[in-house]
Amino acid sequence: MPREIALGDLLVPALLLAFLAALVVFLCLDRLLTRKGCYSLVWHPALLRLSILMALFCALGLAIYR
User: Fold this and answer.
1) How much is the pTM?
2) What is the pLDDT of residue 8?
């Protein structure tokens, strides 16, 4: 996969699009976990949210560049 994607006359890094996709998936997953009350079971909910987002982003980044 190319390192940059052309959107019109603008070259956008592929990781930016991977981050936006990870953010969309994270927001849906976060809403689901909030409704189920899963964040009340962990010590630091904000840290868990950040780690879930970073895990999704890293997984998509590895899928792009492998």
Assistant:
1) 0.85
2) 86
